[in-house]
Specification:
Layout (H helix, E strand, L loop, with lengths): L2 E2 L2 E2 L14 H10 L12 E5 L5 H9 L4 E6 L2 H14 L4 E5 L2 H7 L4 E6 L8 H14 E12 L7 H13 L5 H17 L7 H11 L3 H8 L9 H9 L3 E6 L8 H4 L2 H9 L3 H12 L3 E8 L6 H10 L1 E4 L9 E5 L2 E5 L1 H12 L3 E2 H5 L8 H13 L3 E3 L10 H11 L4 E4 L4 E4 L3
Parallel strand pairs: 3-4, 3-6, 4-5, 6-7
Antiparallel strand pairs: 1-2, 7-9, 8-9, 10-13, 10-14, 11-12, 15-16
Bound molecules: S-adenosylmethionine.
């Protein structure tokens, strides 16, 4: 096994897709939060720091042939797979740069409208984190969006002892990282079997979830030397030093009104809280959040009331293949199941089933009758559950790269279906 800067580099990270990192999703979330955002059509630029095997960039590049994409990673094997996929799919608007973040921050001369970083921040050394922020500070355009995923308290606090043990095991065992991860997991399970976690149901739940994951995934997640969750407020202050402001969560559930997104007993307390940092911390505690997908902006410009209304009216939405034909819908949320009433969701789903609809058209449905808040809450619940999605407003310049990428996914047994007219993909059901 080898560690590069304390991060493992002897095994490929599995292919994962996250809709929350895609440019149309990010610009939509900024718009729904009341801010102008770079357009996610035509000729924007996007950089992913720590792109792994490149799945998220490949999807974006195939769906947005007029834009330019850059992926950075220090694992050459990851980039070999990413470049192979781009070549096989005829995707020519993505480049993969072999560098660590410090080297890239030093050498990069490009500017970006979007910078994304998923599954990286909480796993790297402080000097690499500083390099990420240096790069973002220098390389993000004015008004540009920065997506940062990280592990947070209080939901991940318990995992620190598991991670420490798995990392320690790995340092004292020969062999490849997935094997070390399996041996470490077995030790944790033997400890659990002895009954010592009997009064810690959260730890038992974490262990049961970890046991379902592939050894390669566990190795990347837990064997690093630098695993540490943060409080969101501390992270926001750190990013603020780079000149960026926190806008919203790219996980849209977190942006919903507390009446939907916070357990009932806490709603009143959070509503009374005037200090945003305190309210955000209380929300993480109320949801026992273990990770966050935060969206930051350089020099954010709030939309005024009229511009916000016009912006929402212009947005387009489509149904995704997993959507039901009518309500009620059970939404699986971090605070448990929520039922979306039939009276709201049946007319909304029926309209979307006829084809893409603008915000203006949806607002005119009798069930919403111009109530923007009710419409946006309903749409965001559907977006969260991959039932509806913002749609690309402008006709995408057609090529065959989307179909060829879909074919490459099939050939490599990667369960991801392309949704070209939403500029995204969905994780296929087994
Ligand atoms: C867990 S993977 C995440 C991959 C991808 N972002 C995703 O979410 O699917 C973390 C990636 O960051 C890369 N990485 C870790 N530390 C790095 C560093 N200091 N410089 C460049 N890449 C790094 C690893 O090689 C790995 O590909």
């Amino acid at each position: 096994m080898s560690w590069t800067g304390g991060y493992i580099s002897d095994v490929r990270y599995p292919a994962f897709f996250y809709k929350e990192m895609q440019p149309l999703w990010l610009s939509t979330v900024a718009g729904l939060s009341g801010f102008t955002a770079p357009r996610a059509n035509a000729d924007f630029t996007l950089c992913e720091l720590g792109c792994g095997v490149g799945i998220n960039l490949l999807v974006a590049a195939a769906c947005h042939p007029g834009a330019h994409f850059v992926g950075v990673d220090f694992n050459a094997d990851h980039l070999t797979m990413a470049r192979d996929a781009a070549r096989s799919s005829g995707i020519s608007n993505v480049e993969f740069i072999h560098a660590d973040f410090a080297g890239f921050a030093r050498d990069n001369r490009q500017n970006f409208d979007y910078i994304t970083c998923h599954g990286v921040w909480s796993w790297i050394a402080a000097e690499q984190q500083a390099a990420v922020l240096d790069m973002v500070s220098a390389g993000l355009n004015q008004n540009g969006l920065f997506y940062l995923h990280y592990m947070c308290h209080p939901g991940s606090t318990d995992l620190m002892s598991f991670q420490h043990l798995l990392n320690l095991c790995a340092h004292h065992m020969p062999g490849p990282s997935p094997r070390k991860a399996q041996v470490g997991m077995k030790l944790l399970q033997q400890m659990a079997g002895s009954g010592i976690f009997a009064d810690r149901p959260d730890l038992m739940r974490h262990l049961a979830n970890m046991a379902k994951r592939q050894p390669e995934d566990i190795a990347h997640e837990f064997l690093t030397d630098h695993w540490r969750p943060q409080h969101c407020v501390d992270l926001h202050q750190q990013v603020a030093q780079a000149g960026l402001r926190y806008l919203a969560s790219a996980d849209v559930f977190n942006n919903l009104d507390p009446s939907l997104s916070i357990p009932g007993r806490m709603q009143g307390l959070i509503r009374q809280t005037q200090i945003p940092a305190l309210a955000e911390t209380m929300k993480d505690m109320a949801r026992n959040a273990h990770q966050r997908m935060d969206l930051f902006q350089k020099e954010p410009t709030p939309l005024n009331r009229d511009h916000f209304a016009a912006h929402i009216a212009r947005m387009q939405f489509r149904l995704l293949p997993n959507a039901p034909s009518h309500g009620p819908i059970q939404f699986d949320t971090p605070i448990g199941p929520i039922t979306g009433p039939e009276a709201i969701f049946t007319p909304l789903l029926q309209r979307l089933a006829q084809g893409p609809a603008s915000g203006a058209e949806l607002l005119a449905l009798p069930v919403f009758a111009g109530d923007v808040v009710a419409l946006l809450q309903s749409l965001q619940l559907l977006m969260m559950q991959a039932m509806a999605h913002p749609a690309t407003a402008d006709a995408v310049m057609k090529g065959d790269q989307v179909e060829r990428l879909a074919q490459w996914f099939r050939q490599n047994a990667i369960q991801i279906d392309m949704i070209e007219n939403c500029g995204t993909a969905v994780v296929a059901r087994p």
